[in-house]
Amino acid sequence: MPVYQIEHLWSDVVDASTRALLAHRKVPLFRGKRPVLLPVDLYDLVYDGGPKPIRELIEAFPASCGENAWRALPPTIELYKTARENGVPIVHVTYDTRKETDPRGVHPTNRKRRQPDLALYNIKEELAPVEGELVIYKKRASAFFGTPLPAFLNELGADCVIIVGESTSGCVRSSVVEAWSLGYPVAVVADCVFDRSELTQKASLFDLHLKYATVMELPEACEFMRNARL
Amino acid sequence: MRDFEDYSWRDLVDDEVRYIYTPYVRERAVGRRPGLVVVHPTTPVAGRWSVSVQALLQEARRRGIPVVHSGNPAEAKSGEPVCARPCESAFFSTDLERTLKRMDARSLIVCGAPTSGALRATAVEGKSFGYRVAIAEETVGDESVFLHKMALFDLAHKYADVMSLDELVAQL
């Protein structure tokens, strides 16, 4: 049984008495033979303005995750490569911008300032779906809410899911909670999820690991995918 | 109403984080025709939140605001509907949504515990269902003060209108 040493992912943000709750953690061991990789909301919008601190981008690019997004890009590319080499299906998740779905009015969150350019919801080129990969178009925080994702996972024969993307405290988190609610063992790859602040990133990683998922780092996630028997 | 950031999470959030989250700052209000969803924890959660829930329940009942309980069959004796809750969100695999329809609720007030678990999941899914969601910070509680504050921070910025109990009751 692998033991992931991951407390360093949040120990400088989460206080000791809260961290002590991990002693009562009830999340079962992450396991499965047919994982599916679910990258959530990795579209151009969150990389907008380049790899800079968010405080320098917020006026011109209110939805950007700046350097946090760019830092997660190389490990996410590596994760995709490992998934594809080992036959792990990738089901991409992005925002539905069809005008009939009111893309300027119906949003996952109550954020007030938004980028007007809907083309920015294209999945980032380096992470784009390849021929044959499925894409979920969603309107709400969770990748499952009102989408065919539960059916896709059944048809793919998934028995566990690995979730990456952004934001850790928003769409990633609610997708993790819903995957867990549907009965899937869930892994979150810490190197491949990001948020607007270190505070929300680390608090979310801790809380997800405490309640719903197994947080792991890139090498463990790649090893898991290599060992999955497809 | 107090400043957007002047609630229980204020000591966790420095100036930079506050600045990064300015695109989320907005007017807050209780939606029209609210229904009150009381999220009962599956294991006891200590704290004064339950006293504030009773105060809010009293205000709601006095005004004829529909009330529904999630997850505590003992509440059935109040005569108010109870929806069993198998997972975290009060909506997931439950009849909460059709109960809200039957009660003609058009928006939500959500209270209960734990803030970072069932309460949070319920508020997020309420938003996903298209409801405006209001939360009074005194009426939610968690075994961890840190997780309580962080959950309220996330909810306030992205999914719900977080305010004090006095501010919420004043709008009923």
Q: Overview of this structure, please?
A:
The complex is a heterodimer of chains A (about 230) and B (about 170). Chain A has about 230 residues and is of the alpha/beta class. Chain A has a single domain (about 10-20, about 30-225), classed as 3-Layer(aba) Sandwich (Rossmann fold), CATH 3.40.50. Helices cover about 30% and strands about 15% of the residues of chain A. In chain A, α3 (about 65-85) runs parallel beside α7 (about 220-225). The radius of gyration of chain A is 17 Å and the shape is globular. Chain A starts with 15 loop residues before the first helix and ends with a helix. Chain B has a six-stranded parallel beta sheet, with helices on both faces. Chain B has about 170 residues and is of the alpha/beta class. Chain B has six helices and six strands. Chain B has one domain: 3-Layer(aba) Sandwich (Rossmann fold), CATH 3.40.50.850.
Compile the SSE list and pairings.
The complex is a heterodimer of chains A (230) and B (172).
Chain A: H1 16-19, E1 35-40, H2 54-57, H3 66-85, E2 91-95, E3 134-138, H4 149-156, E4 160-166, H5 171-181, E5 186-194, H6 198-211, E6 214-216, H7 218-227
Parallel strand pairs in A: 1-4, 2-3, 4-5, 5-6
Helix pairs in contact in A: 3-7
Chain B: H1 15-20, E1 34-39, H2 49-62, E2 67-70, E3 82-83, H3 96-102, E4 107-112, H4 115-128, E5 133-136, H5 145-159, E6 161-163, H6 165-169
Parallel strand pairs in B: 1-2, 1-4, 2-3, 4-5, 5-6
Helix pairs in contact in B: 4-5
